[in-house]
Amino acid sequence: MRTKLPEFLKRPIIDTDTTRNVRRILKKNCLNTVCENARCPNKNECYTKNTATFLIMGNVCTRNCKYCNILCQKPEALDANEPKNVAQAVRDLGLKYTVITSVTRDDLPDGGAQHFAQCIYEIRALMPETKIEILTPDFKNNKSALDIIIEAKPDVFNHNIETVKDIFPTARPQGNYQNSLEVLKYIKENSNIETKSGLMIGLGETFDQIKSTLEDLHNVNCDIVTIGQYIQPSKQHLEVAKYYELEEYEELKKLAASIGFTKYQIGPLVRSSYNAASLV
What we know:
alpha/beta; TIM Barrel; eight-stranded mixed β-sheet; 10 helices
């Protein structure tokens, strides 16, 4: 077991004309990204590919998950112009595939489902050929909110389970493991939308617990799964219990395939939206 960050988890700082252009477009359209707010280690690589994962509905969250770098504070009112701004940024970047995620907004009656839907509609109006993946909160398993999402017809619906069942109450005290599964199940049973979920490893889970979680996801007919190493954002967040070795990721790939997944991304720096287009 490692006690410090392995070399293969370190990423260089990259500053090119492309990365500067991505930042310029985001700033011009007054947009947040999960790349910046969650301190994603793949940020610079994605920016060099002229892409980013949009973070809508503000940059503060109504939940205080113990692994996440996004601040938990009283959120601001929704920006009515944000869906149009997201669509404009998608066009400016020339994206053929885009990922939109959000902070959790438990203060809103629909959890922000209509705002997600409006982003989809605006992108389709400007860029009808662009594939759209959304990475959403659980909406408290509100079926009316999920119906709004289904009606908007994203190409991929992603909701991350984040961790195994036994660690879930510690890592996500305001969430519910079963609710997350039910959300994925409801989308799959009521639409033709591909579903996706992901989890972090390194929080103290066992191989058998990872297996059980993957089986739970497969049992609700989740199409795509991602697994990556948890990296502690600050000393105030959950500590890393283990850094997985590269060969262990190969074992996890074999495990996912044996359970029945045909679409998966598993590796040290894999995040839910990392190289998302390659799986669709």
